[in-house]
Amino acid sequence: MRTALYPGSFDPVTYGHMDIMERAIKVFDRLIVTVARDVGSKEPTFTVEERVEMIEACAKQWEEVTVGSFAGLLVDCARACGVHTVIRGLRAVTDFEYEFQMALTNRSLDPDFECIYLMPSKDYTYLSSTMVKEIARLGGDISPFVPPLVEGKLREKFRS
Fold first, then answer.
1. Is 145 helix (H, G, I), strand (E, B) or coil?
2. Mean pLDDT, residues 85-108
3. Which of 20, 29, 121, 154 is the most buried if burial means most Cβ atoms within 10 Å?
4. Over 70: is that where the pLDDT of 63 sits?
5. Which of 84, 102, 118 is nearest to 40 (CA)?
6. Hey, how many other C-beta atoms are within 10 angstroms of the C-beta on 153?
7. Rounded CA separation 78/110 (Å)
């Protein structure tokens, strides 16, 4: 069974993330979506548990997708899951340099580590969770960018 890992902060999950999931399950038999507990200096809007719950709800139509979380190094997470292939989305050239550095660094930590890049639909190439949160914070319409459940959760967060 061909299994891949799709890691990210998913703060929150967007239609762009879901597009990458859908593309990945066309290539792999199983996809493990895993939410990073360590997101560097960024303070997440949603807890890890909230992000996992949102992804589970949004991905429930795909039986090939399971959702979890991880702390620490991605290569350790992949090893613990018995996976050697990681899926990453590339939206634009600006993503490439960071992703290239990360893939080579991870490969230096684990020579079996492979990273496969999938490009989202042209409708989502500009979309980022950060942009969605900013639009929501300012009261704009985010319905074209996130599933209704996520839209509701963002509205709740920014009302308080």
1. coil
2. 89
3. 20
4. yes
5. 102
6. 21
7. 10
Query: Kind and range of the H or E element at 118?
Result: strand 114-118
Closest among 59, 7, 1, 61 to 30, alpha carbons compared: 1
Three-class secondary structure of residue 65 per DSSP: strand
Residues found in the chain: 160
Question: pLDDT tens, 2-58?
Answer: 999 999 999 999 999 999 999 999 999 999 999 999 877 778 999 999 999 999 999
Residues designated as active site = 17, 42, 91, 129
DSSP 144: T
| 157 contact partners, CB below 8 Å, separation of at least 6 | 45, 46, 136
Closest CA to 138 of 159, 114, 117: 159
Strand ranges across the sheet with 3-8: 65-70, 30-36, 3-8, 85-89, 114-118
Residue 93 is predicted with a pLDDT of 75
Q: Give the CA angle between residues 67, 131, 95 to the nearest 5°.
A: 70
- Could you tell me the domains of the chain? 3-126 (3.40.50.620)
3-class DSSP state of 123: helix
Q: Is pLDDT at 78 greater than 90 in this prediction? A: yes
pLDDT exceeds cutoff 70 at 160: no
Output the CA–CA distances (angstroms, integers) from residue 138 to 10, 93, 134, in the order listed.
20, 28, 6
